[in-house]
Design goal:
The complex is a heterodimer. Chain A is built from 7 helices and 11 strands. Chain A is an alpha/beta fold. In chain A, helix 3 packs parallel to helix 5. Chain B is of the alpha+beta class. In chain B, helix 1 packs across helix 10 and helix 9 packs antiparallel against helix 14. Chain B is elongated and about 110 Å long. Classes of the chains: A alpha/beta, B alpha+beta. At the A-B interface, helix 2 and helix 3 of A face helix 1, helix 9 and helix 14 of B.
Chain lengths: 217, 446
């Protein structure tokens, strides 16, 4: 599902990711672990097409994303990849429901259809009723992360990339989020790659990739 | 929620900031709209007055600044040079003298006899009896009988540039040397009708037409072909006055400038036939220029305000742009959202500005008018003063009365359109620059 071949990313003389080759099968829940500054988030950005590698190729769902134009990459990201960030990154001045509807709006799905799907997704992650109409600031951290997961699932992606999804949550909420992510792979065949520095959490994933100074060890 | 509604909603995200920016934009817009309305009002009145002034100007031998002397009449050579001035359509030559019936001269005592109105030339004899008497201060003495004005013109215009208003008969024909137009009162006094004859300087003249008396003095007049009056006076082909017409109203000013440059100030006075109107037109032109420059400055200020506001907003929301890009928003969607926000902000400012402009534009225009006309009055030429004193001209007050910055929906449309264009450019440029950056880079930089 996700394979990279010798990808390298450097910012000036510093190499954030160095010659990384990985292969993650469809439906797997994979963890990238490493210390702070080891290049985990950069690798995730490269996989998600938020950043272009300095060299090497990335293939997702049999598509070489490294050779796509900026416009095509945006469209690919919209249709195939969902993102979950440590700091949730919800749009502050629109409701939880509108946040989930956003990726579908960008994919030109009609208002009624996207509204119905967004309500369904929010119900699925446990945000229902009036909470769906609240602004992100009026929700707890765990709830915001669940809204972020619902948003990531909006366009039925084949890959979810989660950057420290439980990093800002207490253990109870972290556990809930992890469960949702694990279910996605097992029940819906969605590949999930998550970045964490929590070894215990990583051990519960299907596969672990450890990064040190930008290299897989 | 689409990109547009999201943008509109974002406008009110920070009420205090929106109010602040809207007020700044509104002030610039108010100034711009006021100037636009004032500019159009003076432009309109200027073109009305120009039409009223017509295409003709008068060229006369210059009068010295101290009124002590006047330059000699124009020679045929000078007139030939003048005729080559660009945009000149027609030159009408004038000469004038006076004539009096010997019986009338005799009837008056030497000191009370009438003198010629024009030029001081030797008076001609005529069989006509004058239709104009001038009462004396001493009631015991008889009223002075004024001589008949004999005007020679090479065109069918009076000396003040107006078309001759014919009551009966036909207008002058330059080839019919001894056929004349006679003022209505003069014709009545002498029981003349079309075809009747009279004499001037022993020449038999036939009445070709009777003309309307526009003023009391104009009733006591005989108009003859130019060459005839010159011949009657046994003079050379000298011209005491010219009426020169331009091809269009717009070219009158440039033609006047060219003639002044050709003849020089000491040689000739080139004056408008309506000096007050000319002065008002000049003042209006000055206001038009001032208002246009202020309009450009105000619009530039508005454009800069919108640009800087949007630059600030966009820079502040870089992270949001990064998130939107990460979840699949195209550059177009992002630009549309910020454009809607900028347009909303601009429209709020423009509407408030328009409201202020509607209330304030008349006051601004009137204060511009009064200060400009006050400045303009000090520069009136000596020739203008003579004409002002000798003819009945409309006053500055009557010429500028009723100038108001009227609310013209076309203008509002143009104003709003220009504002939209400004907002468009001011938003698209920074939004496009930010949207082109990779999402990770945007999010990292935050």
């Amino acid at each position: 599902m996700v394979s990279t071949s010798n990808i390298t990313k450097h910012f000036g003389p510093a190499r954030a990711v160095n010659d990384v080759t990985i292969d993650v099968p469809k439906g797997a829940l994979a963890a990238i672990i490493g210390k702070s500054g080891s290049g985990k988030s950069t690798l995730l950005s490269l996989l998600g097409g938020l950043e272009k590698p300095s060299s090497g190729t990335i293939v997702i769902a049999e598509k070489a994303t490294t050779s796509l134009t900026e416009h095509a990459l945006t469209a690919f990201r919209r249709n195939h990849i969902g993102f979950v960030f440590q700091s949730f990154n919800l749009i502050a001045n629109v409701s939880a429901l509108d946040n989930v509807m956003l990726p579908m709006e960008f994919a030109h799905i009609g208002l009624r259809a996207r509204r119905a799907r967004a309500i369904g997704l929010l119900d699925q992650v446990g945000i229902s009723g009036a909470k769906q109409h609240r602004l992100p600031a009026k929700l707890s951290g765990g709830e915001q992360q669940r809204v972020a997961i619902a948003r990531a699932l909006a366009n039925k992606p084949s890959l979810i990339l989660a950057d420290e999804p439980t990093g800002n949550l207490d253990s109870e909420n972290g556990e809930k989020i992890f469960s949702i992510l694990r279910e996605l792979g097992h029940e819906h065949g969605v590949t999930v790659i998550l970045v964490t520095h929590d070894d215990a959490l990583a051990k519960r994933c299907d596969m672990i990739m450890r990064l040190r100074d930008g290299e897989i060890v | 929620m689409g990109a547009i509604s999201r943008g509109v909603k974002n406008t009110f995200r920070n009420g205090l900031r929106t109010t602040g920016f809207a007020v700044i934009i509104a002030i610039s817009m108010a100034l711009a709209f006021s100037m636009l309305l004032a500019n159009q009002a003076v432009k309109e009145r200027g073109s009305q007055l120009k039409k009223q002034m017509g295409t003709s100007v008068q060229v006369r031998p210059a009068v010295a600044a101290d009124f002590s002397s006047q330059a000699p009449p124009f020679s045929p050579k000078e007139i030939a040079e003048l005729s080559r001035v660009s945009h000149l359509k027609e030159i009408v030559k004038y000469t004038a003298t006076s004539a009096q019936n010997p019986k009338e001269v005799k009837a008056q005592s030497a000191g009370e006899g009438a003198s010629a109105i024009y030029g001081g030339d030797k008076q001609l004899k005529t069989s006509l009896l004058s239709s104009l008497e001038w009462p004396t201060r001493d009631k015991s003495k008889p009223a002075r009988i004024l001589p008949v004005t004999i005007e020679g013109t090479s065109g069918n215009r009076t000396v003040d540039g107006k078309s001759i208003a014919l009551l009966k008969g036909e207008l002058l024909d330059q080839s019919k040397k001894y056929e004349a137009l006679v003022g209505k009162k003069l014709a009545e006094k002498n029981k003349l009708s079309v075809g009747s004859t009279f004499t001037i300087g022993n020449k038999k003249i036939t009445v070709r037409g009777i003309i309307k008396d526009e003023a009391a003095s104009r009733g006591n007049i005989v108009i003859l072909p130019f060459a005839t009056v010159i011949a009657l006076q046994h003079k050379k082909d000298e011209v005491s006055e010219l009426t020169v017409s331009a091809d269009t109203v717009e070219n009158v000013e440039s033609m006047q400038t060219a003639m002044r440059a050709l003849l020089g100030e000491k040689r000739a006075d080139v004056v408008s036939l309506q000096p007050e109107a000319a002065q008002v037109v000049a003042s209006l032109k000055s206001i038009e220029n001032i208002s246009f420059i202020t309009l450009v400055i105000a619009l530039t200020a508005a454009a800069l305000t919108i640009f800087l506001t949007m630059l600030l907003v966009i820079r502040e929301r870089k992270r949001e742009i990064g998130i939107l890009k990460a979840i699949g928003a195209s550059n177009t969607k992002i630009i549309t959202q910020f454009l809607a926000e900028a347009l909303m902000l601009t429209l709020i400012g423009a509407l408030i500005g328009m409201g202020i402009a509607m209330l304030a534009s008349n006051t601004i225009l009137q204060s511009l008018l009064s200060s400009e006309l006050r400045n303009g009055q000090g520069t009136t030429s000596s020739a203008t003063i003579i004409q002002q004193s000798s003819t009945q001209q409309p006053t500055i007050e009557t010429l500028t009365a009723g100038i108001g910055a009227l609310i013209d929906w076309h203008l509002i449309f143009y104003g709003v359109s220009s504002v939209i264009v400004i907002a468009f450019i001011a938003t698209v440029v920074p939004a496009f620059v930010i949207a082109k950056i990779r999402p990770a880079q945007i999010m990292r930089s935050n």
